[in-house]
Amino acid sequence: MRKIEKEVKKLLDDNYVSRPPVPVDRIAESLGAIISFEPFEGKDDLSGILYRDGKNKIIGINSAHTQTRQRFSIAHEIGHLTLHNKELFVDKVVRVNFRDNKSSLAADREEIEANTFAAELLMPKSFINAEIDRLLKKQQSFDKDDLIDHLSRAFHVSPQAMEYRLINLGILISN
Ligand SMILES: [Zn+2]
After folding, report:
1. How close is the Cα of 6 to the center of ligand 1, in Å?
2. Residue range(s) defining the domain that contains residue 24
3. What's the 36 CA to ligand 1 centre distance in angstroms?
4. Is residue 171 part of a domain?
5. pTM for the whole thing?
6. Domain CATH number, residue 40
7. Distance of CA 89 from the midpoint of ligand 1 (Å)
8. Main-chain dihedrals φ then ψ at residue 73, nearest 5 degrees
9. CB-based burial label for 23 (10 Å; 0-12, 13-18, 19+)
10. Residue-by-residue pLDDT tens, the chain, 175 positions
11. Domain count of the fold of the chain
12. Dihedral sign, CA of 80, 82, 83, 84?
């Protein structure tokens, strides 16, 4: 997964992004993609689409979803755009219970990579560490819920996505 970290760092540097929230729509546009927000009526579980041909790159995002969900979907499609070559990706919401090891996670390698990319892009490790340092200077201790609440607002992601990221980074211990 080192490759994904490097790709994300380059994108952040190229776009002069050094603090949260990461402007995923501006980053997508910097790659030549056009984002189209549509309600995808009758297809509630559809979160995002990436289509590209020789000269067009179009990301379709389900505008009926929450803002944080839409941001994750954009970041996921940027992952496909950066890492993969297929012409069309159609992405559905995957409901995952992170505490249940038996849950069916993203099935194939490209989906796992795009999700990893999205988490890296929306919640870069160095940004999280800087934010926690800032918080620690203001108050000496905080509980887990305060931390997740504060960080998910700062990064404009869902509390669930932030909790999962903090566990992955070893900052929170899964219980
Ligand atoms: Zn995907």
Report:
1. 20
2. 2-120
3. 16
4. no
5. 0.90
6. 1.10.10
7. 6
8. -65, -45
9. middle
10. 589 999 999 999 999 999 999 999 999 999 999 999 999 988 888 999 999 998 899 999 999 999 999 999 999 999 999 999 999 999 987 655 455 444 445 568 899 999 999 999 999 999 999 999 999 898 888 889 999 999 999 999 999 999 999 999 999 987 6
11. 1
12. positive
Q: How far is the CA of 48 from the centre of ligand 1 (A)?
A: 8
Query: How far, in Å, from the CA of 27 to the mean position of ligand 1?
Result: 18
Cis preceding-peptide flag for 23 (omega within 30 of 0):
no
Ligand 1 centroid vs 91 CA: distance in angstroms?
5
84 CA from centroid of ligand 1 (Å): 10
Q: Which two tokens stand for residue 53?
A: 């041909």
Structure tokens at 78: 């940027």
DSSP tag of 22: P
Name the amino acid, one letter, at 115.
N
CA of 13 to the centre of ligand 1 (A): 24
Distance 164 CA to ligand 1 centre (A): 18
82 in any annotated domain: yes
- Rounded to an integer, what distance in angstroms lies between the CA atom of residue 56 and that of residue 96? 32
